[in-house]
Design a protein that fits this description.
Layout: E1 2-5, H1 12-18, H2 24-34, E2 50-53, H3 73-77, H4 81-98, E3 114-117, E4 125-127, E5 154-156, E6 164-170, E7 173-176, E8 189-194, E9 197-199, E10 205-207, E11 213-218, H5 227-232, H6 235-241, H7 247-258
Antiparallel strand pairs: 1-2, 3-11, 4-5, 6-7, 8-9, 10-11
Helix pairs in contact: 1-2
Length: 265
């Protein structure tokens, strides 16, 4: 990759054009994938900021080729219709493979990741039942690092995984969650499969027949916050970052777990 320092008057489009990158969105996506978190790029090119420029052909514009390519007009007209159609299909495939994906820069989800439901109160872990073959970033093959696929529809705990359901009010509050998946996970990463099943990323989501939408709260491939950090966190501030999550209840869960026998206090 190259590096380019933004000059006054530059735009992402003009920089992309200068280096033959497909477009501004491709340039932004490439930079944000490979740059440090503090250097993430927005929609504007800021003078003095260093941008990463791709050199891989899949991010660049296709070379303009002379349509005659050394043949005279008569020979060009004689090109079969089948070959022209085949060429178009090949170009479409190349564009599909090289086009930016909504999954770019996202993490794959592993078994110890956590989910949240738009209508629930608890945050269960995932349970991989579709395979016992592929592990993300774990050479020892620990179960917690199993890759979650579109067919993994079980949670830990399996019963009432999201606690109570906001869509089922009762005189005493809410009735228990009765999770029932409406098909497979949606928005999996189609390009990566385990035994023919597409893997999940942070973008994936799952609908419940009751009406809730399940999304990924934590992908699992990260160091988790310590209990002391959870206790000190401001619940109101956390609500701004994640309005779906009931952080106060999460803090209570941590306190309850800490007081169970066998835990280090």
């Amino acid at each position: 990759m190259k590096k380019y320092t933004v000059q006054k008057g530059d735009s992402l489009s003009s920089i992309a054009e200068q280096f033959c990158v497909k477009d501004a969105q491709t340039l932004r996506s490439y930079h944000n994938i490979y740059c440090p978190l503090e250097d993430l790029l927005g929609h504007d090119a800021i003078p003095g900021k260093e941008i990463l420029i791709p050199e891989d052909q899949k991010y660049l514009k296709e070379e303009v080729i002379d349509p005659m390519n050394g043949y005279d007009e008569g020979e060009a007209e004689g090109t079969s219709k089948e070959k022209q159609e085949e060429s178009k299909e090949q170009k479409k495939e190349q564009q599909t493979e090289s086009s930016p994906s909504e999954h770019d820069g996202k993490y794959f989800v592993i078994q110890k990741g956590m989910c949240q439901c738009s209508q629930g109160f608890k945050f269960p872990k995932l349970k991989v039942t579709s395979h016992q073959k592929h592990y993300w970033n774990d050479a020892d093959g620990q179960a917690d690092y199993l890759a979650v696929t579109e067919d993994d529809l079980t949670f830990d705990p399996p019963a009432m995984p999201f606690g109570n359901c906001k869509l089922k009010p009762s005189s005493g509050g809410y009735l228990p969650c009765a999770f029932a998946p409406a098909g497979k996970w949606q928005k999996p990463y189609e390009k990566v499969k385990v035994m023919g099943k597409s893997c999940l990323t942070e973008m994936s989501e799952l609908m419940c027949t009751t009406g809730g939408k399940i999304t990924i709260l934590k992908h699992g491939q990260q160091s988790e916050a310590g209990k002391s950090q959870v206790k000190k966190a401001d619940a109101r501030e956390q609500h701004i970052y994640n309005p779906v999550m009931n952080f106060e209840e999460f803090q209570e869960e941590v306190n309850e777990t800490e007081n169970e026998p066998g835990n280090i206090k």
